[in-house]
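=== Per-residue structure ===
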Amino acid sequence: MARPLRIDVEDGLYHVTSRGWERRAVVRDERDRRRWFELLDRVASRCGWRLFAWVLMSNQFHLYLRTPQPNLSAGMHDLNSGYASRFNRRHRRCGGLFRDRFKAVLVENESYALELTRYVHLNPVRARIVERPEEYDWSSYQDYLAARNAPQWLDCESVLGELAKDRSRARAAYRHFVEAGLSGPIKSPLEAVVGGQFLGSGEWVDRWRRRLTEEPIRQGVSARRHLAWRPTLERVVAAVSSEFDVEQSDLFAVRRRANDARSAAIYLARLLTDEPAGGIGKYFGGVSTAAVSKTVARAEDRRKKDRAWGRRLEALSEHLRTKAGATDKLQVRT
């Protein structure tokens, strides 16, 4: 089974999910819940984490947090393995408790804080455990509504401060924002996650993908290969236009025969970019997915038979795979 990719960064902002193996319960009663929360308190305090929201469900938990130090993987290992050991001893069981270790989405900045904290706090409602989020005890939502004896690592103030300077008004505004999610379906902010790993602007995601391109691909960690930086359609067109010494407009001429440059551009776009066949067809003049597939098949067949054509496409491929340098330090866990 392919292992998930872990990226530990200094001052990293993450949405973290950990689910029970085969969707089984990870807590069975209030005593289990207290033990899990005690361990979260210990790990968050030791690691220096700042949590903006958390929720513990019967078979999963969600955290939205910042790691001042690059220690998410170490902290999550202590939390999950430590709790699993306690759970197994108490319930006289053995074997794994959590599925696939944990899943972490690296978030660009605090602009997603309102949507992500609401998503976390509405989990018990979506699971039909309660009708309203304040009825559920095992989440940070009640700390947002009224001052409680919250742990030092829980940071409600940063999120509430985005709504109003006055604390009472901020709490009321946050309640209204969350309750807006009760009246109808609201798009999850996690639907915009790229490759199950990044939530942010296109430019920011592209920078991260360039960094991953610089990292060696290890066996069993398919996520790095999937997320590695790839050229855009615009870059493919520019490179092919330069190589074939034609105008870029020639690459979009739909009915022109013997248009080698266009064939090469469509082939390389399908081979190297993230765009699906339908998107490539639309980009190159609104042709069908079938037409794109035929062009790719013809180019590939010619590549096998025509050495000069093959060398030309190979040179273009290498040029388009040129990696951008990465200067920021990161730790990639496997």
